[in-house]
Amino acid sequence: MDERPNCSGMGMRMMRDGYGRVIDYLRISVTDRCNFRCSYCMPPEGVKLLESSEILSYEELLRVITILGQHGVTNIRLTGGEPLVRKGMVDFIRSIRAIGTVKDLAMTTNGSLLGDVAHQLKGAGLDRVNISIDTLNPQKFAHITGGGKIEDVLRGIDSGIEAGMTPIKLNVVMTEVLSEEDVFYFIDQVHRFPIAVRFIEYMPISRCNVKSGSNIAAIKTMISKAGRGALESTVIARGNGPAKYYRLPKAIGLFGFITPISDYFCQSCNRIRLTADGKVKPCLLSNDEIDIKATLRGGGSDKDIYELFFKALQAKPMRHKLDDTREGEDLVRGMFQVGG
Ligand code: SAM
Predict the structure, then answer these.
(1) Pick from 126, 167, 178, 299: CA 20 to 30 A from residue 160's CA?
(2) Cβ proximity of 108 and 140 under 8 Å
(3) 83: left (phi over 0), alpha (psi -120 to 50) or beta
(4) Least confident window among 140-144, 154-158, 213-217
(5) What distance in angstroms lies between residue 262's CA and the mean position of ligand 1's atoms?
(6) pTM of the prediction?
(7) What atom of ligand 1 comes closest to residue 210's alpha carbon?
């Protein structure tokens, strides 16, 4: 830990992991439930869902955010499962805002339920959303999501844009369903809207039987073939995480590429994760986790809770071992249980 001034000028303790990386970003999986069954996220044999009593309550989550907020964790992302299937989300967001320490409050969602609530979420204090959309083809979309309707997601994206959740980022996992036609659609979209379309390498976890699709080089070739100019490297002001961003000359939106496998970015990792059942995960792609639920529910003090997070940070690996893990132990939790 080190001392750094916070925005009010008072000293604030920052959290650092064992390698000195400052950790200021907490990703919270608020539920393991999802209304989609994405084949790259959930194993085909189905999943055992948590009992509702096992899931951390909003009060427990607010306590954690408050404690970590005093240690410099100012960026919060809500994920899942699908965060919008959990009831009371608008009020929860308002309560997170009321804590007063959060600078950037974001959500990763499949977008299917966003259409009706985008304005309310924004009004309550949600800054922005990342929306997963892996193909525009309705049949392929239904197939990969286990019955999802692409029109619901497109409506969610429109509502998010209307509500001013900028920058809206679209997450496109590069699986076999992604086609050149989809890439051309996204090229059109970045010319019409201030969005960031991010192509993400498929991470082969949770015994999902999915083939990865195009690689980044192939996508870049498709974009250059479209004749809308050459991609130029750029940076974004807000939420500039592991993606490398590029702009086409006349586009108002951006493309991003996220390469956890071919060019991992662990050296700049600033995040820690909390699962819906109260396990702190120092790394998305590791089985290590530390339980905080028992301490939260067993009368533990704020200091006790903080110390568990600190302990988890000291166990954060320098880099993920996805390849090694695949050769040896399997990752126990699927993406839907950790939050992507
Ligand atoms: N339900 C929300 C959604 O669909 O965005 C949030 C949870 S989902 C687990 C979070 C992110 O993880 C999504 O963008 C999803 O595409 C990504 N994801 C899930 N499985 C993945 C995998 N095997 N490789 C790469 N990204 C994955």
Answers:
(1) 178
(2) no
(3) alpha
(4) 213-217
(5) 18
(6) 0.93
(7) 23
- Rounded CA separation 322/146 (Å): 26
The binding-site residues of ligand 1, defined as CB within 6 angstroms of any ligand atom, are 34, 40-41, 79-80, 82, 108-110, 132, 171, 173, 200, 202-203, 205, 335-336, 339-340
Residue 37 Cα to ligand 1 middle (Å): 11
Structure confidence by residue, pLDDT tens digits, 179-202: 999 999 999 999 999 999 999 998
**200 CA distance to ligand 1 middle (Å):** 10
CB atoms within 10 A of CB 197: 25
Mean pLDDT of the 301-321 span: 94
Rg (CA), the chain: 19
Give the DSSP H/E element, type plus range, for residue 161.
helix 150-162
Which of 149, 160, 136 shows the shortest CA–CA distance to 36?
Answer: 149
pLDDT value for 17 = 96
Confidence at residue 4, expressed as pLDDT on a 0 to 100 scale: 45
What is the C-alpha separation between 115 and 82, in angstroms, rounded?
A: 14
Residues linked to residue 77 through DSSP beta bridges, in sequence order: 27, 106
Give the closest residue to 109 by CA, choosing from 149, 80, 71.
Answer: 80
**Category of 299 on φ-ψ map: left (φ > 0), alpha (ψ -120 to 50) or beta:** left
Given a cut of 70, whether residue 328 has pLDDT beyond it is no
Which of 29, 32, 38 for mutating ligand 1's site (highest number of atoms within 8 Å of CB)? 38
Using CA atoms, how far apart are residues 12 and 233, in angstroms rounded to an integer? 35
Query: What residue type is assigned to position 277 of the chain?
Result: D
